[in-house]
Amino acid sequence: MEVRGAQSSKSWPLVDRIALWACWAAGMLLLAAAAAIVIYMGIRGIQYLRPEQIFSSPQADLDQSKSGGFLDPLIGTFILTVLGTLLAAPLGVAIAVWLVEYGRPFGLARLVESGVEVVAGTPSIVLAIFGLILFSNGAFKILSFQAEGGSVFGRSFLVAGVMMSLIALPLVVGGTREALQAIPRHVREASYALGKTRGATIRRVLLPAARPGIATGTALGMGRIAGDTAVVVILLGATQQLSSFDGAPWPFSTLRGTGSTLTSYVFNNSPAGEGNAPDKAYAAAFVLLGIVVFLNFAVDTIVRRRGAPAWSE
Amino acid sequence: MTTEVARGEARFSGLARALREPWPDRRTERVLAGVSSLVLVTIAGMVLFVFVKAWPSFSHNGLSWFGSGGNVDQQLGDIFNSPANPDHYVYKLRAWPLLYGTFITTAGAVILGTVISVLSAIFLVEFAPRRVRAVMGPVVRLLAAVPSVIYGLIGILVIVPFVGNHLISSGRKESVINVVQLTGASLIVAVLILTVMITPIMVAIVSDALRSVPRGWTEGAAALGANRWRIMWTVSVRAVRPAIVAAAVLATARALGEAIMLSMVSGSVGFAPNPVDGITFFFEPTRPLAATIVDNADGLSVEPFGQTLYAFAALLLLSAMALSLAGWAAKQPLKRYGIGV
């Protein structure tokens, strides 16, 4: 792609030089925006983040020194991310394997392929609304809890986790698909020649080879889940603390209960929400940005470590 | 007796063995196809549920749902406070200001974003020095990964006060005081932040496509004496036009559905900014559809009000689906040349 040489832009026509400057300006603008966000959030985070905030629950109090920290939102983010990933990763890998390795009947495969794109393009607010309508249904009362009048509340960690998995799903499918498509045909043929079935080839040869791609897609999906606000605001009940559903044994009591995440905590503590405590919002946003940057960094490491596979020689 | 037990055991162990042993290909294929079809079931369910729930709002208003007339915030309030008797539910809504708000924020951001992303993709692929290039890939990915609530937080705590205190003169505020309050939360802030949010997605798609333009094409142009800018502009960018369209379409879908950031910085007033107002136009507040849903999330369980919000979601779903399919279709010509994804 690079057409390099001793060519200097000084000899170019003026229009071309202006265009070149515009390219530089656009690139620098992006870099500056990213730097500004990271540096500004870093400064505010160091300024306002106190270690005890991470270990104390939020309290409803007008006095900001008594309103506690964001332990519960942090746990909420963790639970939701794990739930969403647990659902999205196996499903996404299965879909990608079917699309790349089988893909029959052709029409159905194309439909599923564009279906994944549709899910990827659906705004998370619409997914949240769909989740609320679906899970307020009596048939799914096991996932949330019933209000006293008998109507199903339709808001809980389980419900939000299911919808979150739809947000991560296209990224897992994309990552896995790309990795599978990059495996040359002769690797599969070698496996068949050794008498392995297609299923065995997928499980023992292709999936291990595609592991970095699967990991990249999953990490991207986790970042997307951790950063989503709309689903949380609508489907998690927006209670400050984790409030569990008492009618079920332990893990399910929390999972069927409501709570909040870092994103909804930031939203509620910003001037747009009820809390209006910018210091706390900055501190929580700093932690959230840290999580997202970490996941992003993890993707970079996975991509770089991938190296050349054994068959590329 | 014993033979029956033995037969039962044999049948059971046969089943267990069938599950434990490697699956025959046909079964693997069927199970995977079944799992994959779940995606289609989900989409069908989503369309069905959302539209059935949204129907009362559309059917009571007819086509005037999309029209203008009256104060939309007032109408939403009336719907929220409508009597408990289902026969007297209030549904009257003229959603035009919200639709218009969605349209101008999205259009503004996508137009700005397309220009910036094409230029910076060219920069990234062709002109950036090696060190800048090494940094820029991860930076673009980071910008795409920053949660919208953080963009919103910076917007509402830094940019909105700055615009409100320094860029809008008090004379300008007074000139429209009877119509709308100018606080700084405005169309221009919403469009600018939205542009920063969607540009990275477009840069990723466009630069991927630019990188995969066959080398022979650009070298041919170089041999004919074109300079590096001309090669990029007349050969590479032209070859990847479908990718630019696909990127713009996907960015439009993203911008349409952005709710949290816009509800924080757009002013949250159901007002249609008027281009006739000159520069004041850019400082007027608005509120897109998605932001309206988030702002009123508490009212989702109130029957007629919830149905109205579902109608907003239905409209967003329909537009996003159309855009996704259009983006998918726009990418198809590229596959023929083996360019891009």
Report what the structure shows:
The complex is a heterodimer of chains A (313) and B (341). Chain A is an all-alpha fold. Chain A has one domain: MetI-like (MetI-like fold). Chain A has helices at 14-48, 51-54, 71-102, 106-121, 124-135, 157-182, 185-193, 198-209, 211-227, 230-235, 250-255, 262-269, 278-305. The longest helix of chain A is centred in the first third of the chain and has 35 residues, at 14-48. Chain B contains 15 helices and no strands. At the A-B interface, helix 1, helix 3, helix 4, helix 5 and helix 8 of A face helix 2, helix 4, helix 5, helix 6 and helix 8 of B.
Distance between the termini of chain A: 24 Å
The CATH superfamily of chain A bears the name MetI-like
CATH architecture field of chain A:
Orthogonal Bundle
Mean pLDDT of chain A: 85
Number of helices of chain B: 15
Write a compact overview of the structure shown.
The complex is a heterodimer of chains A (313) and B (341). Chain A is mostly helical and 313 residues long.
How do the strands and helices of this protein lay out in sequence?
The complex is a heterodimer of chains A (about 325) and B (about 350).
Chain A: H1 14-48, H2 51-54, H3 71-102, H4 106-121, H5 124-135, H6 157-182, H7 185-193, H8 198-209, H9 211-227, H10 230-235, H11 250-255, H12 262-269, H13 278-305
Chain B: H1 2-20, H2 25-61, H3 72-80, H4 96-127, H5 130-145, H6 148-167, H7 170-175, H8 187-211, H9 215-223, H10 228-239, H11 241-257, H12 260-265, H13 280-283, H14 289-295, H15 303-337
